[in-house]
Design a protein that fits this description.
0% strand
């Protein structure tokens, strides 16, 4: 059993919020892939319903244009969500480094001055951070469930690359959901 310090508890909280943000990003990615699939199916059905009122060439052009637009849309969503994922990773990394530096500076301050006030305040704050972390872990797990539910087994994205995006989002979300559940259980056991 490890001793929970304010730095460790806060670092866990930062990681949990980062994972939650990534789950929301994945849910956005998957939801947009499903929306693109729906629009493509609806467009295709409308063009087919028009039947002989439009020529075969117009019908092919309309379907090809829709597929291109859907492909561009999915690429845009993928590009945006990949950028958001990278931004969250960087923010979590920088917050963790900043937290470590604050802890080092606080320790150095206490050693230099001989005061232990910061350590006492930090120890008093640990239970509150652990409690917030438990709530954040539940939020992370629920956001992971949302991403997985959105992906569902019925997703059959027809747009180029959309199927890969959905599978990738589910693969990315699943380990974080398991990790969050394990962390929540470990925090409860402490």
């Amino acid at each position: 059993m490890r001793t929970t310090t304010l730095t460790l508890a806060t670092n866990d909280l930062i990681t949990t919020y980062g994972n939650t943000a990534k789950n929301v990003i994945n849910a956005y990615r998957v939801g947009n892939a499903r929306a693109a699939n729906y629009v493509e199916k609806t467009w295709s059905a409308a063009v087919q319903k028009a039947g002989k009122r439009i020529s075969g060439e117009v019908r092919r052009n309309a379907l090809n244009a829709q597929k291109k637009l859907t492909g561009y849309y999915v690429q845009g969503v993928t590009f945006t969500t990949d950028g958001a994922d990278a931004a969250v990773d960087k923010a979590v990394e920088l917050a963790g480094k900043s937290l470590e530096q604050v802890a080092v500076n606080a320790t150095r301050f206490e050693q230099t001055t001989g005061l232990s006030t910061l350590g006492t305040v930090a120890n008093a704050a640990v239970p509150a951070v652990v409690a917030v972390n438990k709530v954040a872990a539940k939020l992370e797990a629920k956001s992971g469930d949302l991403a997985i539910r959105l992906a569902g087994s019925k997703v059959k994205a027809m747009a180029a690359g959309a199927k890969r995006v959905v599978k990738k989002a589910v693969r990315k979300a699943a380990p974080r959901v398991r990790k969050a559940a394990a962390a929540a259980e470990a925090a409860v056991a402490v």
